[in-house]
Amino acid sequence: MLLCRSPWLLQRPNESLEMSTQDLSADTEVVLLLCGRFGGEKQEAYQPLATREYGELAKWLNALSLRPSDLLTDAGRVALSSIQEARLERKRLEFLLGRGTAMALALERWARGGLWVISRGDVAYPQRLKRRLKNAAPPLLYGAGDKALLEKGGLAIVGSRKASPSALSYTRAISAKCANEGLAVVSGGADGVDTAAMQGVTEVGGYGIGVLPSDLLKTSLNRQNRMGLQEGRLVLVSPFYPEAGFGRGANAMARNRYIYTLADQALVIDSALEGGGTWTGAVENLKHRWVPLYVRSPGEGAGNAALITAGALPFTLAADSTDSLIRLFGGRVVDQPPSDSDIADVQQSFLAPDSATLSEAVPAESLPVAVQEELPTPSRHEELAVQPAVVTVLLAVSAVENFSDTTGTTIEEPPAAEQTVPGGSSGSAWDMYADFSAKLASLLRGGALSEEEISKLLCIEKSQAKTWLKRASEAGLVEKLKKPVRFALGNQGSLC
């Protein structure tokens, strides 16, 4: 049951409620008060925190060794006197923290639709987003269905809303092939290719991950979606207000990065040239090298050839081919995220050769493509003069830089350990560490434990526990506490 603990909210006799089958953690409750929208915000004095603002708040809290839930304590209220250090106003935070009644009413509506809410500090929050987007990962995720599917990875399939019948037929065939090979399909939930991709995989019993820019509550109640949700084969997720109507603006563009970062590899069915959500999403992925990008070839979109010239891989598999997708994607086992070196091996970035060292973090508030790094120098453009399509992509990235954050706010890079896949991306399907890390996370939810306690509870040798705990610590899964030495879940000491 959810108990709204804010000292500023209006207490009601019945203010506890059940949020689907999962209670909100104390941290998620506070993050929801600070960043969530419940309807009617346009008429309010203060607006919820944007992602970049929450990033600043998170850094400030971490510096004080505080968690979001601490803002509801006496110590947290005292600490708010220095909140200007995070470029935020105390009155604004106090106002947002006092929205308990509005939050409780919204949670009741969402609970009736079977929705859940998680924040970056929750164990269920997808590590893929935190690893690839760093502090620009959305503070909140709203969803319906099995949250565990968000870590399944798979193939992101994207394309035009106005795709031809032949392109839609091809999309459904590839999606069904994914289902037959155990690969999940990640898509955007829009008309056209997105819908065909989700239908193709779920109709034959596969797994689908839909990343929505709007209408999450309405979409989750759709009869066809309810079947997939109830059977545990479909999860719908969105970082945006669950009752927001469809818009072709920032939300529709911003969700592209979440589609890519929740997948293992991506396939563009058809793309326009120099415009549209498919194009900007593909260019953004090429820029940040989140996952290997494949483009249907020959395709029907004017942008397909340009993307391939710019560094994407041609996808020539026929709809009725018996060839294995997993083998085509380099033999990567299902559920195993690709490492940066995997991506570098199969796909060369169209940027300068040293771009691999640049930040992957992108401001979640910017519109089509968020560019943190500098573009190639003029001499680089001259070097690429013989490749017009590549220059076209570079100019497209340059054109959208005007949308980036102009406040001077920067996203702080997290510790290097956060960039490592828990379990190690180089592990094989037989690596027992994966089983250890899953059981360890469950074990530590009850509190911190010593190395000896962990080895005894999991029935493994102390030396093996030591080795795996070191690996889990480096991956950010656990945090090593001192005096006495114990291990706790990684999110207990920071906001991640």
Helical fraction equals: 25-40%
Which outline best applies? Answer: globular
Number of helices: 20
The structural domain count equals 3
Strands of the biggest beta sheet: in what spatial order?
3-4-8-7-6-5-9-10-11
Total strand segments: 13
| Mean pLDDT, all residues | 77
CATH topology name of the largest domain: Rossmann fold
Query: What can be said about the biggest beta sheet?
Result: 9 strands, mixed
CATH architecture of the largest domain: 3-Layer(aba) Sandwich
| Assembly of the depicted chains | single chain
Structural class assignment: alpha/beta
Radius of gyration: 23 Å
Distance between the termini: 25 Å
Strand content: 5-15%
In CATH, what is the class of the largest domain? Alpha Beta
Poorly predicted parts: 1-22, 332-338, 340-430
Descriptive labels:
single chain, 496 residues, alpha/beta, Rossmann fold, Arc Repressor Mutant, subunit A, 3 domains, nine-stranded mixed sheet, two-stranded antiparallel ribbon, 13 strands, 38% helix, 10% strand, globular, disordered N terminus
Description:
Strand 6 (185-187), helix 8 (193-202) and strand 7 (208-211) form a beta-alpha-beta unit. This protein has three domains: 2-112, no CATH class; 143-403, 3-Layer(aba) Sandwich (Rossmann fold), CATH 3.40.50; 416-492, Arc Repressor Mutant, subunit A (Orthogonal Bundle). With 496 residues, it is an alpha/beta fold. Helices cover 38% and strands 10% of the residues. Strands 3-4-8-7-6-5-9-10-11 form a nine-stranded mixed sheet, sandwiched between helices. Residues 1-22, 332-338 and 340-430 have low confidence and may be disordered.
